[in-house]
Every structure is written in structure tokens, then in C-alpha cells.
Specification:
Length: 144
């Protein structure tokens, strides 16, 4: 069986497999496939961001590059994104323009979790998460 030579981020790699997935190519190059996605840059330009397990027919001298996976989530129904897999409620609110001194963060999807009093607790951020901010300021009560 012939060896196929290819490059990932300009680092030489080789395989005897004629078909690999983007995930396998990243793993073989010792790149975390959960934090990155693969793009073919030669002979074609193809992104495997949304399909890391799609079979790739390997040919000699292929070129790939690994890109950081962008995570999309919402805060108060506003779109946000990050390349960081772990964020604190303080970081999430600050990025969304919310003052963490007067608000706390609650996750509403996929779980219902409150981070009240835990502004620096790390959260594993995943695609499609939804958060809301909750004011910790006292609510004025109108008199009778």
C-alpha cells in the first residue's frame, strides 16, 4: 500500500489510508478536534467545520489548515460567539455588555442553572447555549 503525503498547518504528515475524516486528520496531527475544525486548502478549498466525520479521499500533496472552532450562543436573545470553550459568567456578561456587578447569569438552555454568587465559576460553553442576565438591584415598589 502506498504512503500518501499531505500537510496540516504546513507540517508534513503521511498515511496509508486512502480515506480519512477531518477528525482523524486533526487527531493524527495531534490537534484537538473538539477545539478546531479542518479546512482543505489544496487542491480545493473545503471547510469541514460542520461535518468533521465526512470521508475525505486522500491524494498526495493535499494541504489542510486547522482553525479554531467558533462557538455561537445567546445572552438575553442576542447572538454572541467565542473561540473559548471555558468562560466564566463574568466574561460572558462583560462580552455581552452587561455589568456583572449588578447582574448575575442564568443558563436557560440546555439546562436551567443559576450562577448567582458565582461570577468566576468556569462554564463549559457549547454551541447553541442560551443565557439570561438577572438584575441583582432591588426593584422599587410603588406606594399605594
Amino acid at each position: 500500500m502506498d504512503t500518501i503525503e499531505y500537510r496540516v498547518n504546513e507540517v508534513a504528515q503521511e498515511t496509508k489510508n486512502h480515506v480519512l475524516t477531518a477528525r482523524e486528520i486533526l487527531q493524527h496531527a495531534e490537534i484537538d478536534a473538539d477545539l478546531h475544525f479542518l479546512e482543505e486548502t489544496q487542491p480545493a478549498h473545503i471547510s469541514f467545520q460542520d461535518n468533521p466525520d465526512e470521508p475525505i479521499n486522500m491524494v498526495p500533496q493535499m494541504r489542510f489548515k486547522a482553525e479554531h472552532q467558533l462557538i455561537h450562543y445567546k445572552v438575553n436573545d442576542e447572538n454572541e460567539d467565542t473561540r473559548h470553550r471555558r468562560r466564566t459568567p463574568r466574561q460572558i456578561m462583560t462580552q455581552a455588555g452587561i455589568d456583572p456587578a449588578t447582574n448575575y447569569l442564568s443558563e436557560v438552555f440546555p439546562h436551567h442553572l443559576s450562577f448567582e454568587g458565582k461570577p468566576d465559576e468556569p462554564i463549559d460553553v457549547h454551541q447553541g447555549m442560551r443565557f439570561i442576565s438577572v438584575s441583582i438591584k432591588p426593584t422599587p415598589v410603588s406606594g399605594c
